[in-house]
Amino acid sequence: LSTLNRIDSILFFLPPLLYLLYKQRVIRGLWVGAAGFAPLLLWELFSLFYYGFLFPNTYYAKLHAGVPQTLLFNQGILYYLNSLSWDPVTLVVTFTSLAFALTQSDAKPRALAVGISLYLFYILYIGGDFMSSRFFSSVFFASVILIVQFLSQFTPQQKYLLAGMILFL
Fold first, then answer.
1. pTM of the model
2. Is the dihedral of CA 22, 25, 31, 36 positive or negative?
């Protein structure tokens, strides 16, 4: 359902969904997945019929405006730097959660971390946005969820260190 709001949010959910389909290894999982994507498919068919396009106008206006990809990457880097300047907590929490998730033996947090990483690359690819840190809000939310899952594995010293880092930031 998130893709009905922002179609690019599929980048978050695709790796965990593929992981779940792989783990289930049953045809029923494919049917459940197809049913979950039915609202998006119906919307895309309606959009194609009614508007004549599959994607929102912003997709065509921003990404197909003749701006070279190198300039978009450069602008994406500036978007990251702006976020670090105005809101350092978001990216620090995000990259900390990715470090925790990618070092886990459990594939579930790694699948979500791959989705977050895909979205972070997507932000670079499209050149960020004119609103500071707007695209990082969903990344931050998913990162906080990952960190909360890891809190039970922390020693008391690590929890104090994390609390100190949060207060410092």
1. 0.84
2. negative
